[in-house]
Amino acid sequence: MAVLTRNRLAERLVEETGVSHREARELVDLFFDTVADTLQAGEEVLLSGFGRFRLLDKAARPGQNPRTGAPARVDARRIVSFRASTGLRARTRLRPPAPASGAEGAARANPEQPGASASGNAPE
Prior knowledge:
Largest sheet: 3 strands, antiparallel
Strand order of the largest sheet: 1-2-5
Distance between the termini: 48 Å
Structural class: alpha+beta
Strand content: 15-25%
Number of strands: 5
């Protein structure tokens, strides 16, 4: 599985806009620096059609050491949260599998249908 990196983003900018590689890299860096600076200032970042980034403060809480099972305290912390927009979720949603063909496939696809069972055999 390929990974999208800053360099690949810059290469795409070069291909699509014709700017130099140095300028494309500066634009990509500027974008990410602006997002980070905005979050650091306590503001949300809303990219319409893509999603929303925001900071969340997590309270300290009791926890457990996964290796030993001993009780441990999880310190308070601040995290970056991302929520994908409806449009992005729609673009990345898995397509449902195609229905199986034939009567046996129909029975498996809808076991609640009268006369059908999960095994594909008729009820006794």
